[in-house]
Amino acid sequence: MASPLADRIRPKEIDDMIGQRHLLGEHCALRKIIESGNIPNMVFYGPPGIGKTTLAGIIAARTNRRLHKLNGTTASTKDIKDIVEELDTFMAQNGILLYLDEIQYFTKKQQQTLLEFIENGKITLIASTTENPYFYVYSAILSRSTVFEFKPVPPEEVERGVKRAFAFMEKELNEKFDIEDGVYRTIAVGCGGDVRKSLNSVELCVMSCAPEKGVRRIPLDRAKELSQRSAFRYDKDGEEHYDILSAFQKSLRGSEPDAAIHYLARLIEADDLPSICRRLMVCTCEDVGLAYPQLIPIVKSCIDAALMVGLPEARIPLADAVVLVATAPKSNSAYLAIDAALADIRAGKVGSVPRQLQNKHFDGEDAAVKGQNYLYPHDFPNHYVRQQYLPDMLRDVHYYDFGDNKNEQAAMAYWNRIKKEGR
């Protein structure tokens, strides 16, 4: 039993696979393609442990092509050249099926080496990657391949695999298992959609429980202990990282405190305090903004407290901040105003600063109007006086619109009154 349980129990037929029904269901395109035997170049994209390698092995077994397996983390250009040298020989009369795992680790040059032979059909490529292929796979390879997205397996389907795994080991060890209620479900939920991880948990449960009188008892507590942190998948450099951060900020913006707290918890479990703090401040300024401007220093104080005490206590001020931001009134008026102004600047709409606002107190001989003529607002009623502030080419441009929240509406009413009375 040197090899892991996941390898010993690896399915040999499509119908034995767990999950990916959206690809491998009876009438689905990928299944029909495999059954036809006419295999195109393909890229399998999805998280680890959900059947990409297993399906590639099943496809290889159905073809008459010589199978080569390479892993992008260890393979070199020489490995590719060695495969190419087999083409048109007795060993590869019908061409070669190349399964390239973790293709994202192949350099552009290594991927380019395959192009000619993928183009003429002498090599059929099945590549797999846990990263978004549209970011990590050379575009010329993508244009010659079909991308199939594999998804995390739902607990209901994982549970079927967990039961099968326990039955397999029971037979393999020639023992009887006494499995406590809830063990199957705990492992199925705890793996976070990763079938391989669930099988590893099954094997650990079995091997950590000694048999007594020919019966090996598998308690629920042991299953919980061995799968308690498995459900969480988070890579700070991967796409999942940005998906969670995006969901976190959009839940805050969408005024959904339950969802925002959920994603906060996932970020906390990943010990990703910097990302939490940054997104909280961005959302406070961008999405709450002038509807509740006092919230900006409040959230900053919560963040300072979180960074001062560290985890696990940091979860408390962070939760305070998240609930405050999610339930606060929202306004993006200032955000829209600055973006509109930046767009004008970048388009070259700048112009000279009006003379009355310039930081100089004399005029050249060529000045048509002498004197700065700046009107000091505090010298006038209500501390306001009309004068031109924008450059001539932008004098009638309008960037800021008052939001429809109570705070900005009060400010609008005040300034409408003052400006109506002003000269």
Would you kindly provide a written description of the structure presented here, covering whatever features stand out?
The protein is of the alpha/beta class and 423 residues long. It has 19 helices and seven strands. Helix 13 packs parallel to helix 15. The protein is flat. The N and C termini lie far apart (91 Å). The mean pLDDT is 86.
Protein topology:
Blueprint: H1 5-8, H2 21-24, H3 29-36, E1 42-45, H4 52-62, E2 66-71, H5 77-86, E3 96-101, H6 108-119, E4 123-129, H7 133-136, H8 139-143, E5 146-149, H9 155-173, E6 176-179, H10 183-190, H11 195-207, E7 215-218, H12 220-227, H13 239-253, H14 257-269, H15 273-288, H16 295-309, H17 315-327, H18 333-346, H19 406-421
Parallel strand pairs: 1-4, 1-5, 2-3, 3-4, 6-7
Helix pairs in contact: 5-6, 9-10, 9-11, 10-12, 11-12, 13-14, 13-15, 14-17, 15-16, 15-17, 16-17
Derived from helix and strand composition plus strand pairing, the structural class reads: alpha/beta
Chain-averaged pLDDT: 86
Give, in order, the helices and strands: HHHEHEHEHEHHEHEHHEHHHHHHHH
Distance from N terminus to C terminus (CA atoms, Å) equals: 91 Å
Instruction: Please give the count of helices.
Output: 19
Query: Residue share in helices?
Result: 40-55%
